[in-house]
Amino acid sequence: MGEERTRYKLVLGYGTCGIAAGANAVKTALEEAVEKGSYDVDLDIAGCMGYCFKEPIIEVTDRERDYSVVYGDLDAKKVLQVLEEHILNGRVIEEWVVRKSDDPSFGEGDFLANQHRIVLRNCGRINPESIDEYIAVGGYQAARKALTQMTSEEVIDEVSKSGLRGRGGAGFPTGTKWGFARKARGEEKYLVCNADEGDPGAFMDRSVLEGDPHSVIEGMIIAGYAIGAKQGYIYCRAEYPLALKRLEIAIDHLHQRGYLGKGIFGTDWDFDIKIKKGAGAFVCGEETALMASIEGRRGMPNPRPPFPANEGLWRKPTNINNVETLAAVPWIISHGGDKYAELGTEKSKGTKVFCLAGKVRRSGLAEVPMGYTLRQVIFDVGGGVREGKEFKAVQMGGPSGGCLPAELLDTPVDYEAITATGAIMGSGGMIVADSSTCMVDLARYFLSFTQEESCGKCVPCRIGTKRMLEILTRICEGKGVPEDMEKLQTLAADIKAASLCALGGTAPNPVLTTLKYFRNEYEDHILRHKCTAGVCPALITLFINEETCTGCGACLKVCPTGAISGEKKEPHKIDPELCIRCKLCLSRCPTESIWAE
Amino acid sequence: MEEGCNHKHRFASVDDLRPLEEILKRYEKEKGALIPLLQETQEAYGYLDEKIMRMLAKKAGYQLSQIYGVATFYTQFRLQPIGEYLIKVCHGTACHVAGADLITEEVCNQLGIKEKETTPDGKFTLESVMCVGACSLSPIMIVGEDTHGKLKPTAIKKILKSYYGEPKEEDE
């Protein structure tokens, strides 16, 4: 890692997305080539740069010219060509370029140019497994400043001034929360980092933990000092092995440096961190359930009060913050709360990281100032809908959130404004849907999720979501009756009002928002027995376009019921009587001649 | 690179109590350690066998009902042995919208098993999982330690076949 400075620095995106897309093969090829050849380069890895849609990715920095180029969609062969052309011959391979540092309008450059990165400030830029690289970009200066130059009250004031609100979804002001824990009576207090990112469609916490684990830990050191907790826990999902590994490496390094343990930064303050691996339960994202799980029990929520700030982990005062919240803290202490509060809206300050996925063209990480509109996030950063299709809806906030239609695209990203639509800011997942997504099916999907994940403690959630799911399943199967829509509405109101925790309290949101904004689709399913998106098997018929069918027989071979017939090289036909609408043929057809209606 | 290669998990036999004793020793002094205890026990034996759970209850001072309660609450814990490779098909939102159901269906077709079942030759066990957090590569399935992204049902046959031959290096 660059003791002798080479001209070029090559950084490989090495987060979960990158590895899943083939970064290991690229890494092996690069390492072998650089070892054998004489290239003026050094290699390094980084976490996710955010361009998940272009993985595997490398960034080539020319140190002489202070200029960098990001290449995407690489494989073991292409990366060798980059070495040959770019490093040896000095020629940029334009068609593979995702971004040029000196020309944000080139390629996909506006993906990053339209963002404002605070939480993701180091993601993709430093090696997450190296404490030196974190320190080189100013790491641990904020913690040192807090512990050596500020009182705990001053730290809390600074965070309050920043207007930072809990990024896990609820949006409670972080400074106020810290104040409660600070004032709580008791010698022994705990700080917990909630890294149990359970919302399907949200991966920002994973990306931060994989790409910049030290920023979260530094935030924890500051928070621990502010509230008076000497023991911190990181509760992280077991489904994130790479994040867990990088956290362990980071904590090891910190112990070696004396940044964790007894008397850190030369003060008399002690602070240490333990990692707790979650065991797979969505409800453990809820604070009281999470604490039960750390204590080794079934992760079931408890009524509040008592609030964790007074009686939390092992009945001691406990403060719980989300990964993204904690990662913003060092920046706030370094730059000042006022600076952070300059960004955003009146009540929602700073930035928020969103995970763009679904039918959006550029899926990946988008950090934007609060107050940006959904349109700006999805179109300016995300590049709009894939394959030029029409935008239909965006699902925000996972199973607790809602589906918003095109008419609401100008809603600003702001806790209150989003809540007013019926969705929630949530943790920041944004799944974009186009005309091929059935909104009733999507609502059913979320209900089946919450129903599965309901811990079963309280009746409204356990039985209420079950009844809602039965109704939605019935509608998707074409057996819905007109009264079902009203029944769903009534059940939803009861579940929201009477559930013990937020899992149940928000579970009806996907149904309520789809009923509100996409009522026509429910009516299509119930009254006209049609699923216009072509998703719900009971309500569609499959057809073969006789003009484009080449008679290759691929569909005929996979059809499990023998519903397809036809001579070789002649157009085939589907017998709707025999067809079970499994759509296997549709995915097999090389000429896309099969469609659902 | 451990992320990239295929581990053939070798699990301890449930008659061999040494791994369990080592694990118990490591967590002797830690409070509230039941979940990590069960996690490591499962890692050692591949699943939580009744005999092992009984032993754990006795030695670590838990009620058996307490252990069974935790083991059945969290989705990570399994009470049945699994095949050599665990196939996890992601059914997160992005994968659902991208057709995860078709992926599961095709795996079932190819292997002749249903969800949560193991192939007769003990090679594969099929599971559905919630979001693995790699939504931009949807639909996704994880076989053993390998993640396969941007899947099409047509690609499944080849991927599964590759686990019968020589250990392969690259992802699809």
Description:
- Chain A has five domains: 103 residues, Glutaredoxin (3-Layer(aba) Sandwich); 210 residues, 3-Layer(aba) Sandwich (Rossmann fold), CATH 3.40.50; 84 residues, Ubiquitin-like (UB roll); 89 residues, de novo design (two linked rop proteins), CATH 1.20.1440; 56 residues, 2-Layer Sandwich (Alpha-Beta Plaits), CATH 3.30.70.
- Chain A is 40% helix and 15% strand.
- Chain A has 24 helices and 18 strands.
- In chain A, the strands form five sheets. Chain A has a five-stranded mixed sheet with strand order 2-1-3-4-5, covered by helices on one side. In chain A, strands 11-10-14-12-13 form a five-stranded mixed sheet.
- The N and C termini of chain A lie far apart (57 Å).
- Chain B has two domains: 56 residues; 77 residues, Glutaredoxin (3-Layer(aba) Sandwich).
- In chain B, helix 1 packs antiparallel against helix 2.
- The longest helix of chain B is centred in the first third of the chain and has 12 residues.
Tally of domains of chain B: 2
Beta-strand portion of chain A reads: 5-15%
- Average of per-residue pLDDT values of chain A: 95
The end-to-end span of chain A amounts to 57 Å
Question: What would a concise description of this structure say?
Answer:
The complex is a heterodimer of chains A (597) and B (172). Chain A is an alpha/beta fold and 597 residues long. Chain A is 40% helix and 15% strand.
